[in-house]
Amino acid sequence: MAASPRVSPRVNVRVIALVLAGVFVMLTLAVPLRALIQERREIKILEQQVVAKQITIDDLNDRKARLADPAYLQALARERLNYVFPGEIGFVVLDEETNTAITSVSGALVPNNDAAWYTKLWASTKLADQPRQADDPLVVPSDDMPQ
């Protein structure tokens, strides 16, 4: 019978020590590498947020520049506030759709009828004292208010 070659116990100990050293190095490097990858992800997200905020800042700066222009302010006052220059005559045109929309609002504070101003005032005072219903068109729902 031929004798089988024997591996010396010293070689086995060296292989085991080498494998253990490799596992130790892998475990030692795994935590910092994981943190590095996570931090790079966070950096990428933060860079995207910075770009979005920069776009918002640019939009606000453009709006600020427009609001510094007197011609733009005059146009804005004319459009939104119905302002007119001295000597001009301002007109507000109400068509049938606008007229019916105003009268169809239930519980409107200022009814669209030919009643005297003090009658409208008294009606709005009485309405203001009543609790609002959930389906009331004059009640604006809010997310942070309890229902």
Structure report:
- This protein folds into two domains: 10-90; 93-129, no CATH class.
- It is built from four helices and no strands.
- The protein has helices at residues 9-67, 70-81, 96-103, 117-129.
- It is elongated and about 120 Å long.
From the structure above, extract its key features.
mainly alpha; 2 domains; 63% helix; 0% strand; elongated
- Return the string of H and E elements: HHHH
Task: Report the radius of gyration as a whole number of Å.
Answer: 38 Å
Kindly report the average pLDDT value. Answer: 79
- The number of domains is 2
The count of DSSP E runs of length 2 or more, i.e. the number of strands, is: 0
- What is the overall silhouette? elongated
Distance between the termini: 94 Å
Quick synopsis:
The chain contains four helices and no strands. With 147 residues, it is mainly alpha-helical.
SSE map:
Layout: H1 9-67, H2 70-81, H3 96-103, H4 117-129
